[in-house]
Specification:
The structure is a single chain. The protein has a two-stranded antiparallel ribbon with strand order 1-2. It is built from 14 helices and two strands. The radius of gyration is 20 Å and the shape is elongated. The protein has one domain. By secondary structure, the protein is mostly helical.
């Protein structure tokens, strides 16, 4: 399995086109924010004039998007192997199908984590360049932990989706749809509070949105204190809900522990569903 994982990593990182398209969604988010949304949000959102506050908000959401888009791009190797019948060569080799599957999953997880960490570093550089503060060490460790859990969840979800696809054209279509919708569903292009009530429920039930909320809670903690210094506590809570920093179902506010549990449970569930889907194809 380790050998296959190394092979998949080399195949992916040698293909610059795959690397580019896996990062396309994050690049789009950064471009929209830098060119159009940044000043509008920081100067006019709820009377708040803190660029650092909104920079951390958008970059936290960007990291959540990256864990999805890079996972989708990483599984392109498996789709390509299937379409070119390379998988049949593997099936005829002494490698068991369990190890073969594990190699694809592990390599995709590693690729997604590496690309997300690169995005995280670039995001911090952008924030500091704009006059913001670098994350404290403890906050940095928390972000790393959230990214690992988020990548585990999204790798399992994307693996399930890819296991249902039978051609490169279907994979390309799915990648386009996911890349287009992910920014809206995670509440990046529009704050969740500006969405219709029904759509807000979809966002709150979408696992990557919980990763975005967790990242926002960590990355926005200090900028939020500065931005709302002297403001009523009600105003702070209202803004948290508006921006998707916290999720509420009625009067219940989702805690970080619950969000992490949702990500882990969804990851385990979709991994089992993927195994079932693949086992059916073997029959």
């Amino acid at each position: 399995m380790i050998g296959l994982t190394k092979r998949n990593l080399l195949v992916f990182f040698r293909d610059r086109t795959s690397m580019f398209f896996s990062m396309l969604a994050p690049f789009i988010v950064i471009g929209l924010y830098v060119l159009f949304l940044g000043n509008a949000y920081s100067d006019g959102f709820g009377g708040i004039s803190s660029r650092e506050f909104m920079d951390n908000w958008i970059m936290a959401g960007l990291l959540a998007v990256t864990t999805v888009s890079t996972s989708m791009g990483a599984f392109g190797t498996m789709v390509n192997d299937r379409s070119k019948n390379i998988l049949k060569d593997f099936y005829s080799s002494p490698i068991s199908r369990a190890r073969l599957t594990g190699g694809y999953i592990l390599s995709s997880f590693i690729i997604s984590l590496i690309m997300t960490l690169i995005t995280f570093i670039l995001a911090e550089i952008y924030i500091v360049t704009n006059g913001g503060a670098l994350l404290a060490f403890t906050a940095f460790i928390k972000v790393l932990g959230i990214l690992v859990v988020s990548n585990f969840c999204n790798t399992a979800i994307i693996y399930f989706i890819v296991s249902l696809l039978t051609s490169e054209s279907a994979y390309s279509t799915a990648s386009t749809i996911i890349g287009t919708l992910i920014g809206f569903i995670t509440g990046i292009y529009l704050p969740i509070g500006n969405l219709p009530a029904g759509v807000q429920w979809i966002v709150k039930l979408f696992p990557p949105s919980h990763a975005a909320a967790l990242l926002r809670q960590v990355m926005m903690e200090k900028p939020m204190v500065s931005a709302f210094d002297g403001a009523p506590a009600e105003k702070l809570q209202e803004t948290k809900e508006m921006l998707g920093v916290v999720f509420k179902f009625g009067s219940y506010e989702v805690t970080p522990v619950v969000s992490i549990a949702i990500l882990l449970a969804c990851g385990a569930l979709f991994f089992l569903l993927s195994m079932y889907s693949i086992s059916r194809k073997k029959r």
